[in-house]
Amino acid sequence: RGGAGARRGGNMASTAAGKQRIPKVAKVKNKAPAEVQITAEQLLREAKERELELLPPPPQQKITDVEELNDYKLRKRKTFEDNIRKNRTVISNWIKYAQWEESLKEIQRARSIYERALDVDYRNVTLWLKYAEMEMKNRQVNHARNIWDRAITTLPRVNQFWYKYTYMEEMLGNVAGSRQVFERWMEWQPEEQAWHSYINFELRYKEVDRARSIYERYILFSVLVIVHPDVKNWIKYARFEEKHSYFAHARKVYERAVEFFGEEHMDEHLYVAFAKFEENQKEFERVRVIYKYALDRIPKQDAQNLFKNYTIFEKKFGDRRGIEDIIVSKRRFQYEEEVKANPHNYDAWFDYLRLVESDADAETVREVYERAIANVPPIQEKRHWKRYIYLWINYALYEELEAKASKRTRQVYQACIELLPHKKFTFAKMWLLYAQFEIRQKNLPLARRALGTSIGKCPKNKLFKGYIELELQLREFDRCRKLYEKFLEFAPENCTSWIKFAELETILGDIDRARAIYELAIGQPRLDMPEVLWKSYIDFEIEQEEYEKTRNLYRRLLQRTQHVKVWISFAQFELSAGREDRLQCCRQIYEEANKAMRSCEEKEERVMLLESWRSFEDEFGSDTTKERIDKLMPEKIKKRRKLQAEDGSDAGWEEYYDYIFPEDTANQPNLKLLAMAKLWKKQQQESEAAAMDPDKDIDESQT
Hints:
- There is one protein chain.
- By secondary structure, the chain is an all-alpha fold.
- Among the domains are: about 240-320; about 635-665, no CATH class.
- The protein has helices at about 1-15, 40-50, 65-85, 90-105, 105-120, 125-135, 140-155, 160-170, 175-185, 190-205, 210-220, 230-245, 245-260, 270-280, 285-295, 305-315, 320-340, 345-360, 360-375, 380-385, 390-400, 405-420, 430-440, 445-455, 460-475, 475-490, 495-505, 510-520, 530-545, 545-560, 565-575, 580-595, 605-620, 625-630, 670-690, 695-700, and strands spanning about 635-645, 650-660.
- A two-stranded antiparallel ribbon has the order 1-2.
- Helix 12 runs parallel beside helix 14 (about 270-280) and helix 32 (about 580-595) packs antiparallel against helix 33.
- The N and C termini lie far apart (about 120 Å).
- InterPro entries: HAT, HAT_Syf1_CNRKL1_C, Syf1-like, TPR-like_helical_dom_sf.
């Protein structure tokens, strides 16, 4: 091939002045198959191997004089400007352009580019950061300050600007300027981390009093009461005082916190921190008073951590055995009495197990779990098993998370699955938890086997969805297709499954398969949410810009239902389709809808259609069309009808509103009668007004 190319290049060069010669194509003499055949697999393997080969670097371009350099700059700038002109909103093009100018030390041009980019999108955080970093990199400090000021003024809620600004000022040694920026930031009442950054800044310069004043502002006035009413902020303040050996101040902060939260909003973390502080100060009696005060007022379910710390304290400095024996033994005895009285009281078992898990060893916990799960519900009805199944779930989670025994966890799941009567009912959450456990153990075949067994024994929507979600996360799309096919064979009326299947095919780029799935779905004789399915199909065709197919879909849907929302949606689609005669098409749809709904018994739907039509004409129509739609609007009248009770007796009269449409010929006499009634009422009102003012009549007669 190379030799032929060289000869062809020589011929073309030799005949440059004359007519160009067309080379002759060599004829294949031997058309028999080659002895060694190359398979498609070999071609793919060779292509994959050649991917790893490194491409040669591009040739270096050497610029020898100023003219070449200017030519190079002109070409690059033209390329960048063309890219920007194609799509102004792609900020990366602006940044690359500015960085290229910066690399040429054209700082003024780079500034101009950044300013143009900010005019396009001033909310882009990256743009501001790159702009300011360029100025700082080139030691243009005042320019950088100007940019940061503009950034925090324009986007004050972007914390990154404030952090960068304060860091720059601190690196420049301008501590007062950095403090001033922090103060401006605090006026916006930022998040918690910003306040701590300010405090740490002051501590770096040994300004303890300033840090304390910031804590006071943060806790009492502008932060705790308004923005951050949280216990941990008081604790951090107290630990700050303790760290700097201001123990009296720390104790005062804790006391103020207890007084502030009161008994209505007590938090165990505050009392635990207070007690540990007093413990560090060797004030053991104060620690006991704090713990007892908190335990008497905080509900037991919210004081587990408090009780745990109290027992640890007593273990170190007091009689731990007495407290543990009295409290734990008393509660354990109560739970034992409850489960003996009613072994199927699963709530009592849950409380008992929670107590045992918090204080006993693993073997004791397993023994109580085995006793609990032995109480199988006597009736095979799912409502009786709903609480019982959570005993198995908690048992498996305890073995996995607390005991770290994966083998026993697998045995617990398998025993529970064997116990369930799958022919009558099952629990999808149990199968899914088992499969997720096997995935955490990196045992994917067992997880798939468990889910496949569940679908074979007791198929449920939740099981199919869980299995499909697993395969989607693993990017096994062929398996997802098969699962969707099985799912739809099991529940063909489930519209959500059809839609998800079609969306999967759309994401994979197989538009024809997605369209075929939608066609199969709308052809099903029974669907749970057909309106959702049709809407999804129509939206799919609109996204593919298949407007003719979308119109056909609307026509097919209107053959099945004449609902007013379908007509309105069809008209709005024609309005947004982008055709030149879109207004005429939209008006024609409204005309068809109005004709089709004349025989509709639901007059409110017809009124809704006319209201939508009038809105369209108000926006796009002429005076003639507006006058025409106003003539089509109905008259709203009040009527009475007789009610009957269930036994057939008279239940009185009921008032209701009815609509009379001018188009309906049967309603023409009613409209004439209504007009005459209005005229009569007007005459009556005028006569009553004349009777009320006789002097006016005399004056008028004299005149």
